[in-house]
Amino acid sequence: MIIRIWVGSHVVLVRPVRREEHLEFVAAQPSASFLQLPSWAQVKAEWGSESLGWFTPGGELVGVGLVLYRRLPRLRRYLAYLPEGPVLDWDAVAADPAGWLDPMVAHLRSKGAFGVRMGPPVVTRRWGADELKAAIASGGAARLAHVPPTATEERGTRVEEALRQRGWRPPAEAGGFTAGQPRYVFQLPLAGRSEEDVLRGFNQQWRRNIKKADKAGVVVEHGGSEDLPAFHALYVETARRDGFTPRPLAYFQRMWRAMTDEDPSRITLLLARHEGTLLAATTLVRVGGHAWYSYGASSTEGRDVRPSNAVQWAMIRESLAAGCSVYDLRGITDTILETDPHFGLIQFKLGTGGEAVEYVGEWDLPLNRLLYKGFDLYMSRRG
């Protein structure tokens, strides 16, 4: 089905696209989230999925989006979800939100969507390591929002205002982790930097731990699909220790197959061993110039030889070698209060000398408010 929306003298077309078209468009971009690739639809097998394309009247493909459909129990109605997407020119969206977003909404409504959720990959604010360390040391701020940002991105402000004008609901304020994709992440800029530059940017503790791991004989190696069970056993141990519900082994096996079939270099499994014992393991995902620390696991034993620092350093080095401009350590909460139980996460990541980054977050557009409210209640009860 093709949806045409007339905006002034322009017409924007939205229709489903083939997997090959989707991937070809993404490959031409500087970066795009791996959650917006066709392979992610295979990973999220419990959702329906569709690749959408945005076209000019002349037929040029100017945007793509992976839509995941979550069906309501006993009804043929769906939540349409675009995690960290769609992949559009968000400056153009901010200037003409109706022209870019209304045809998408019309298409999703025609597919039975009762609501839409999306997470525009648009940054609003950044906080550098030095500013964060000073704020933490002073003890005068509890959250990132209480610290003056190092940089504010005007595009983020424009996108937020444009979404409000079209009736989208902003993300709920929350101090900890929430459902969906993280609004706050921690990133290490790599563009124009060498390994020596990055290493000098680490704090003293990180540099000491990397040296200690190397001196102790910690070896970081690439793993394959046959190593996923060992990774998963360590991941389950991590989940038990840290109090979260682990994903099953089948999830990681599906993720591995989908991503490696799409691009052999898309996902990497790294294993840190000491004297033959597996102590830490991580998955690294790359799309264009962006690399993500995706999943991590570590043993309670062997922490004294710092395998977690060793495997992180290996991922950063691989990202540099691949020409990536950003190494993304993924989600953090917005807390910088040392007594907060989540503080250790940002403290660990802060040691890389990177920056905390705020995105505009996930925005909702209810198309049927009664069904949307019921879905929220259903999901909250599922935990």
From TrEMBL:
<keyword id="KW-0573">Peptidoglycan synthesis</keyword>
<protein>
    <submittedName>
        <fullName>Lipid II:glycine glycyltransferase (Peptidoglycan interpeptide bridge formation enzyme)</fullName>
    </submittedName>
</protein>
<keyword id="KW-0133">Cell shape</keyword>
<dbReference type="GO" id="GO:0009252">
    <property type="term" value="P:peptidoglycan biosynthetic process"/>
</dbReference>
<comment type="similarity">
    <text>Belongs to the FemABX family.</text>
</comment>
<keyword id="KW-0961">Cell wall biogenesis/degradation</keyword>
<keyword id="KW-0012">Acyltransferase</keyword>
<dbReference type="GO" id="GO:0016755">
    <property type="term" value="F:aminoacyltransferase activity"/>
</dbReference>
<dbReference type="Pfam" id="PF02388">
    <property type="entry name" value="FemAB"/>
</dbReference>
<dbReference type="GO" id="GO:0071555">
    <property type="term" value="P:cell wall organization"/>
</dbReference>
<dbReference type="GO" id="GO:0008360">
    <property type="term" value="P:regulation of cell shape"/>
</dbReference>
<dbReference type="InterPro" id="IPR050644">
    <property type="entry name" value="PG_Glycine_Bridge_Synth"/>
</dbReference>
<keyword id="KW-0808">Transferase</keyword>
<dbReference type="InterPro" id="IPR016181">
    <property type="entry name" value="Acyl_CoA_acyltransferase"/>
</dbReference>
<dbReference type="InterPro" id="IPR003447">
    <property type="entry name" value="FEMABX"/>
</dbReference>
